[in-house]
Amino acid sequence: MRRPRFLAGGLLVAVALLTVVPAYGDVGVVRVSPTVATPDSPLEVAIGCGGPCPTRLPVSLVPLSQAPGPHPCGTNALCSPEAEGPPRLPPFVFLGWAEDEGSQSVVHEFNLRTRVPRVSAGIYAFVIYVGARHPGVLVTDTSDSGKLLRVRGERSSDASEGSGTDDAWWIAGAVGLTAIVAVGVVLRRRRSA
User: Could you tell me the residue range of the domain that residue 102 belongs to?
Assistant: First the structure.
């Protein structure tokens, strides 16, 4: 009697394994360069995926305060947020597709080379859409500051390219103008005396 139950159980497990929708392995941001930038600056985001992996992954940017995170589901469990597709509507900004650049042993590395979008100054998180099943899952890591992007305000078009002398010129000009006015006042007083 034990043999038929064992075979029936094994058959059920085999059928279950064959009908499972394939899921992608662990996916996450590996590296961001630079981590501090201004709009229109070059930006590179490296993503790791422990197989099986798709050929490319869509990546969006969202203010850290609005980043999607895991939520309670079931008893003592956390589930990733789900979405019908890569987030493109505000507060998200779609950055593009990270392309698979090959594997490092069992981990595939994906790279997205783009420019920092024109967004308000602040701290932003990257959101990766993983569509192994429908709906797909949003993967975001907000715990590591090295995997976030701090966007500084845009530079003025009048500003020099990072020489750091803009304020010094204004101060020197103000001091020079004050000195000229002071000399003029002293000379005028001497003439009238």
Answer: 19-151
Rg (CA), the chain: 29
Distance (Å, whole) CA 10 – CA 34: 52
Count: domains in the chain: 1
Q: Residue 51 falls within a domain, yes or no?
A: yes
For the chain, 193 residues long, the average pLDDT of each consecutive 10-residue run is 50 36 68 97 95 90 96 88 95 96 80 97 97 86 95 63 46 56 56 63
Which distant-in-sequence residues (6+ apart) come within 8 Å of 124 by Cβ?
Answer: 61, 62, 63, 64, 148, 149, 150, 151
Contacts of 114 (CB under 8 A, 6+ apart): 42, 43, 44, 45, 95, 96
